[in-house]
Amino acid sequence: MTLTDILPTLRMSIPDPIDLRQWPPGTSVTIDDVAVQGFSLSTASALLGSPMRWATDDRSTTIVIVCSVSAVLDDPVDPILLLDCDVRRGIPTDTDAPVIDIAWDHARLIGRVSVAHKHRVQLLGDGTHSRLPHTLAADTDTAAVTAPLPKDLAVGDRIAVPCTVGDTPPRTSAEGVVARTARAV
């Protein structure tokens, strides 16, 4: 348990601690963001959209996935969040390296500061956006995972989570960010 867990209002002035062994090399944190080799994941996901995979280079076996909260189900015991990514496989595509492990215990809220206490939140998502949260909860293939996140998460909040990938991860660089941003404009 950290000081920001005991007194969450401290997150307004100091960032939550981070286990750098779980994140790509060159990761740093601020009170409301995670930066990988100087690139803000909050800014990148605002420009590129969500869900998003971020890798430092072709040799890295650790990437970051940024997902957005699509819906919040109020549950008497714990809230259930629907994410716009597959909570078991990340963001699977035919051309990207497969995700081996998603470290949900190291997930972080980015884009805003929360002063709410953290607790284990149930996360659902199959990456399709086409199923209602209650149908996902009943599906054994999309069983919920849990992550220690602030209690006040809302629709639109973004969550960054480190992942281990096999073989060669996808490449996202400053040139890719500029190219995708230029196409969008």
From TrEMBL:
<protein>
    <submittedName>
        <fullName>Uncharacterized protein</fullName>
    </submittedName>
</protein>
